[in-house]
Structures are given as C-alpha cells and as structure tokens.
Amino acid sequence: MLRYKVTFAYDGTNFAGFQRQPHMRTVESALTKVVNKMAKQPDPAIVVYGSGRTDAGVHALGQVAHFDFPFALPTESMRRGLNSMLPVDMEVLKVEQVSDAFHARYDVSGKRYMYRMDLGEFRNPFKRNYTGHWKFPVDVALIRQAEQDLIGEHDFTSFVASGSSARTNFRTIYEATCHRDEANNELVFEFYGNGFLYNQVRIMVGVLVEIGAQTRPVDDIQRLYKLGDRRNARRTVPASGLYLKHVYYEGDDPEHPTKLPKHQR
C-alpha cells in the first residue's frame, strides 16, 4: 500500500459538510467513492482521512487528505484520474506520495481560514452562497485594532459553539487580518492559528463586525475571554462566507512549526 496526500478545493454549497454521513452528500464520501473506484475496490475499502471537518456550506481552497492506495500511480496520473471522476464542485489541486508516517489530521501544524463578508445594502443573489452579508457601516480601523486581542494563546470558550468535542478551548492565533475589498464591496478576514474550535471563526467574525459597527466596544474581546460564556458573543455569521484556505504541516511554515498538542485536537 502506498500513501498519497491530496490537496483539493470544493464548493461547499451542496455538501452536508466534510464528514461522511449515512444518506448524505458529503465531501469525504465523494472523494472516498472516487478513490475506491480508481483502485477497483468496494467502497469504502480504502478510507480517506481529512485534515479536519468543515460544516455544511463551508468552502475549501486548500483542504488536505490522505489515503493508502493498493498500487503505484504517478502523482499527476492520480490527480488527473481523480478529477475526471469527481463531481464538478470538487477539484484535486495536487497529489504527493508521502511516507507511511504522514497523517493528514494528526500532523497538522496550523490552518488558515478566510471569511468574505458582502457589504451591499441587500443580499446579492449571485454571492449568497459565497459570502456572508452585513449591510451596516463598519470602521475597518476598529476591527483591525480589536483583532490584535486575538493574537496569541487564549481560552476561546466564548467563541465555541455547543457540540464541540475538543478537550480544551485554548488555541493560539498567529495572524488575524481584515481589509476592505473595494472592487467587490466586501470585508475579507483571514485567521491563521494552530487550530480552531467548532464555529470559532464564524463567531469571531460576528464579534468583529459588531465592533466595526460600534455596537461593541473595541476592547470587548478581552471581556469575552474573562466571561467564558458563548451567549455573550451572540452572533454566528453564515457558513457561506467561510473558506479553509490552507493547511500547514511541519516544515511548511518555519515560524510556527509545532503541531497542535494531542490534548487540544
């Protein structure tokens, strides 16, 4: 058996999330079906392991998975073969042959998410599946100021939705940015950290846009850390604006080389 690492993108609009579920169309099940078809194995003889879950409606520009394949194929042949059979809302971008020690989930050292927030007066029917929506005026300078309170290791209990299976709510954020895309009339957020909790990015964006709209004080994130109560963060912005942009592994980013400790996964 040879282990392959695949980097792929998908439009999450018509998927019920990443994780395989009975009688549901998911990213994992679609990829697993095609891998087994290529290997001429009964699904799911070959198991696909992803870097982590994404929820229904969430998109990916650089999701990663691995699987063990029963015979050798050149990586480019594997990429072309998978893409010839995958549905139109998925595409394999890169295939690499890796050692048996590599694991797409447990070797992750960090992830980068992007969130796009449309600022139009009304929800654009052509962007509704790919952005969130915020119609009120926002001060980007206030958002950038507040984002500095996200940097570093913190207890994100106020920023995690119920249903999380994480053993601890401590996470480290290395970068948090926001800029206004004037051409598309959008706010674009990016967050890079060693790991993220269930709905964490969507809750953080909800807090930040309220700060930008001056319905929260600019230092409110510090208050939320101390409270440790999800109810005080209030808003969870729609999944449609969220993109898993990049998954990092040891060696990908020399500045942040340490993978997430087992107790935080």
Automatic annotation (TrEMBL):
Gene3D superfamilies, sorted: Pseudouridine synthase I, catalytic domain, C-terminal subdomain, Pseudouridine synthase I, catalytic domain, N-terminal subdomain
MF (Gene Ontology): RNA binding; tRNA pseudouridine(38-40) synthase activity
Record organism: Secundilactobacillus paracollinoides
Family: Belongs to the tRNA pseudouridine synthase TruA family.
Active-site residues (renumbered): 55
Gene expressing this chain: truA
Keyword field contains Isomerase: yes
Annotated Pfam families: PseudoU_synth_1 (PF01416)
PANTHER family documented for this protein: PSEUDOURIDYLATE SYNTHASE, TRNA PSEUDOURIDINE SYNTHASE-LIKE 1
Binding site for substrate: 113
Protein keywords: Isomerase, tRNA processing
Record HAMAP family: TruA
Protein name per Swiss-Prot or TrEMBL: tRNA pseudouridine synthase A
Protein's UniProt keywords contain Methyltransferase: no
Catalytic activity: uridine(38/39/40) in tRNA = pseudouridine(38/39/40) in tRNA
Domain (Pseudouridine synthase I TruA alpha/beta): residue spans on this chain: 9-107, 148-250
Domain of life: Bacteria
Enzyme Commission no: 5.4.99.12
GO biological processes: tRNA pseudouridine synthesis
CDD domains, per database record: PseudoU_synth_EcTruA
Subunit structure: Homodimer.
